[in-house]
Design goal:
The chain is of the alpha/beta class. The protein has one domain: Rossmann fold, CATH 3.40.50.1820. A seven-stranded mixed β-sheet has the order 1-3-2-6-7-8-9, sandwiched between helices. Strands 4-5 form a two-stranded antiparallel sheet. Helix 4 links the parallel strand 6 and strand 7.
């Protein structure tokens, strides 16, 4: 791996050194600016946390102004949701070293360990956060996933870390239906991961006010040691 990820960051609101780290992984066709704005909502809950939102490693095929963790193969209209295929698994595997290396570098940058790390993802970023976070040598404090899916349940023997996970999904999501969240929760539970989930009513492929508040509290609780890894 030769490429180093970069993106916007926000240092602790306290003005002091960071005592925790939140890494935000954006969705397909977006960029780090898309999620760094979450820090503004969560800084009161996490005044000593640093937030960083890297741009994914590839320029987006469908939106050259954005980035992608991996390509998306479009399906015919009306074909419906299907669980991620082995091809998607291979794409996630290929992108994983970029995010994994970025996490390690950022922890070193701030002099922190995984007990002070929360991973947050949206859509494709949720897939990446789950994949990488469950394969770290030491579990992060938490993984928060919005509007995403879990790829590769059949590769559960590769899971080495079981942090608490919170999945949040809109029930009006036309891109990744809410059924993907229920399937992810089922698969993660079968692997011994402690999973919570929440359905945001009337929310499409985005983050609703309830998901924003619940997700922030989940991260704050995890980073304060109120949640435990399995």
């Amino acid at each position: 791996m030769t490429q180093t990820l970069s993106g916007p960051r926000m240092e602790p609101a306290s003005g002091g050194p960071a005592t925790s780290l939140v890494i935000l992984s954006h969705g397909y066709g977006a960029n780090g600016d898309d999620l760094i704005g979450l820090a503004q909502y969560w800084r009161e809950l996490l005044p000593e946390a640093a937030f960083v939102s890297p741009n994914a490693p590839q320029v987006c095929e469908m939106n050259p102004g954005g980035y992608q963790w991996f390509p998306i193969r479009m399906r015919a209209p009306g074909s419906g949701w299907r669980p991620p295929t082995d091809e998607v698994w291979q794409e996630v595997e290929g992108a994983a070293p970029f995010l994994d290396g970025f996490i390690s570098a950022e922890l070193e940058r701030y002099g922190l360990d995984e007990t002070k790390l929360a991973l947050v993802g949206f859509s494709q970023g949720t897939m990446m956060s789950l994949h990488v976070g469950l394969r770290r040598k030491t579990a992060p404090a938490a993984i928060l996933g919005y509007s995403g899916a879990f790829v590769g349940a059949e590769h559960g023997n590769e899971v080495t870390a079981r942090p608490p996970v919170f999945l949040i999904h809109g029930d009006q999501d036309p891109m990744i239906p809410v059924q993907a969240m229920f399937k992810a929760a089922e698969d993660l539970s079968s692997l011994g991961v402690a999973v919570q989930w929440h359905v945001s009513r009337g929310i499409p492929h985005s983050i609703g006010p309830d998901g924003l508040q619940l997700g922030g509290q989940f991260i704050a609780d995890a980073l304060c040691g109120k949640l435990g890894s399995s």
